[in-house]
Write a structure and sequence with these properties.
This protein is an alpha/beta fold and 463 residues long. The protein has 13 helices and 18 strands.
Length: 463
Amino acid sequence: MKKFYPKRFPFVVLLVFALASFGIAQKKDVITERNVRAQMEFLAGDAMQGRGSGSMFERIAAEYIGSQFMQFGLEPAGEKNAQGAQTYVQTVEVPGRNVLQDVKIGGDFNNSAKFGKDFVAFEVSKMQISGELQRIKFDETPKKGAIVLITPDENAKFQEFGGRLAAIYSGGAQAIFIAANKELGEQWANLAERKLSLSRRGGNLFFISKEMMSSLANVADGAKIEINSQFAQGPKTYTWNAMGKITGSDPTLSSEIILLTSHLDHLGVRPTAPGDDKIYNGADDDASGSVAVLELARTLANGKKPKRTVYFVCFGSEEAGGFGANYFVNNLPFPKEKLIANLEFEMIGRPDAKVKPDELWLTGYERSNLGPELAKQGAKLVQDPHPEQNFFQRSDNITLARQGIIAHTVSSFGLHTDYHQASDEVKTIDFTHMTSAINSMVKPVQWLINSNFKPTWNEGKKP
């Protein structure tokens, strides 16, 4: 029987195949705003109670991310379960952390100030400190070994000067006193209830009340100041890392590791926070970075197997002192020399007005050749426009960088005022920007995991 073919059949067939191919490509290669929104709504919703470091809600976040890794087809990289099967979550024991109980400040002046009432601690890394008092401004260099006193503007925000503190420590200060201004006064009760462990970051930072400032008014520069901190061993706690991987396909390059990371925790619930909202949701910080890792995992798992092995890790307890990242880097599941580079993703939920709308920035861009090389491959990465904030040292990447690993953080944090506030909620996220930001990193990361390029530190820039 003679077969009948409409004259337009070839065109229709081609069109159908073209549309089908386009649809497949869209599903495999393009990160959608719908997926970004869905993950953000879960991780940063009120039901997750702010994913407090070491809390059960942090664990739920890790289990959720791990289950997504499983769904995407990643291999498990966490601990083994009771049946001996590897999982997507790593439990990290934080044994008996020393918790700050009391601080006494004395020296060459009469002082009856009480810890929690007249001054509070933001960070303590040494139990005994002795040095000379020195009043300086944020942009001044301290004397080596000094205990500096800084009086910020009354309406200054902590994030405006927080990053400058690292430069003061680098300049030789042992400890920093900051006079409480309006913002710090409003946060006083919240700061006073913090349960601090001995910090690994090297800072000793105290906020001083207006009353205690009055007692220091007649104390001359050069007076001896002594700070004695008392710690008591607290119960052991836990934190959780979510971990998955894609094993490389190239016999020569598969032993080399590219590490894509974020931190999954935030500040939890703060009963003494000002206002009615006590949940610190941490939408931008750092649910946004964790979603970036998730979506990169989804996209890379749907594509051709990379030549290099890729690890996807969302760290726990960054906000409490970097315990998840610290455990990971000291218990690597592969030889350290095989870890080629780490890209941390943190706070990409909104554009930064200091760069172009479609650009992201890389902390420590000038420290290695990784950022410039990724930019050559199409990454819209530029130098950090906030060098005074020292962001390179303020995320989990620094834990790896101090071990010699090329590690940087991708961000677009524009110093918005919701940082570490209950107002850092999903409703503040610019989903068009965030989706575009993650998409812009796909091809550069694909190049990195398939190339033989090995980044190096620039001379004198290794931390």
